Amino acid sequence: MSYNLPLATIEAARQRIALYVRHTPLLPLPALRGDLPPQLRLKLENLQVTGSFKARGVFNTLLQLSQQQREWGVVAASGGNHGLALAYGAWRLGIPATVYLPATASADRVARVQAWGARVVQHGSAWDDAHSAAVAFAEAEGLTYVHPFDADATLAGQGTLGLELLDDLPELDYVLIAIGGGGLIAGMAAAIKQRRPRVRIVGVEPVGAASMQHSLAAGRVSPLPAVKTIADTLSPRSVSERTLILTQQYVDDVVLVDDGQMVAAMQWLWAECNQLVEPAGAAVIAALQNGKVSVAEAACPVALVCGGNAAAASVFAAYNPSEPR
What we know:
single chain, alpha/beta, Rossmann fold, 2 domains, four-stranded parallel beta sheet, 10 strands, globular
């Protein structure tokens, strides 16, 4: 399979979704206790509508549906953030929505999705299980399935974040981005590298769900047999051909962090930056704090805080570093 994501497609997506998403802040670090590079900036996409970047791809998809597709409704499978964005987007545009979540999804995630009027179905132990059931339901009912990462409109929507980052910081030379199914890093990297090819782009995955690194090593999409990580929004067992191809083309490296490192980074972001984020949102900080990457030589590096949907107290309490994960 060959695949590309033209810059013009991403620019069109940005115009399309402008009225429905936020231009999120890009902030310098405050005066810190610690050794993170002082030139580092944080892109706070955790302050996006519904708390994550997912709203970008969702709105770019929903706004291109036909009237009949809107009337019949949409379906998605999600670890949480995509489902929440879909529920909100569908509510905003008056579209019926059904969201499949894994049975392991927290009561908080379920309640947030339902609060926007979406029907929730819980199925399976991981996103991949929920995805299979959601696709089958959509096909049986003639509904539109909105994929969280393996779709042109989704990737272009996520790519708008790359354009926004370059608008805010034209001198950008290094960016850290978390990886789940790869839609965020693939879309952003395509946008950034087509504008500024010399920007270094590094992805961050959980040790227990290193689906992109696994496929990169294999040279093809290669699903993991299982995933186990506290970062449930970064835990599909497989990336897609689209996201793998764009990552191969535009991403410079992928590094891994473990659950304890992400929790420590969450606590640091709360204590030092007053930002309450989920494990996925803290993964990039964990990579910096634990020497997985160094931005010391970069003039204008950015760490993308991609999501903030966490019940932090329960996450901190649930993590026991003495137990293997």
